[in-house]
Amino acid sequence: MKKEVIMPKIGLDMDEGTILTWYKKVGDPVKKGEVLLEIETDKATTDVESAVDGTLVEIVEEEDETVDIGETIAWIEVDE
């Protein structure tokens, strides 16, 4: 089963975030709580962690792209 990774809402005034760095690449295993990528908002830079154990199977939004909150940025195939 695939689980989407969405652009999180970090602050009350946040409408979008920019992907700075992907720390994982397609095919990499990921663990719950492991950092997947770094994003930047108008006020801060923060890491986004995986919510599940699995394998990163697709990166939808690349580095330097600005994405609205709630939009899908990647997919993880969940370990059963």
TrEMBL record:
**What's the protein name?**
Lipoyl-binding domain-containing protein
User: SUPFAM superfamilies, per this entry?
Assistant: Single hybrid motif (SSF51230)
Q: Which Pfam families match?
A: Biotin_lipoyl
Keyword Nucleotidyltransferase included in the entry's annotation: no
Name the domain of life this protein comes from.
Answer: Bacteria
Keyword annotations: Lipoyl
The UniProt entry's GO CC annotations, sorted and at most eight, read:
pyruvate dehydrogenase complex
Family matches, as InterPro entries: 2-oxoA_DH_lipoyl-BS, Biotin_lipoyl, E2/Pdx1, Single_hybrid_motif
GO annotation, biological process: pyruvate decarboxylation to acetyl-CoA
Where the record annotates domain Lipoyl-binding, the positions are: 2-77
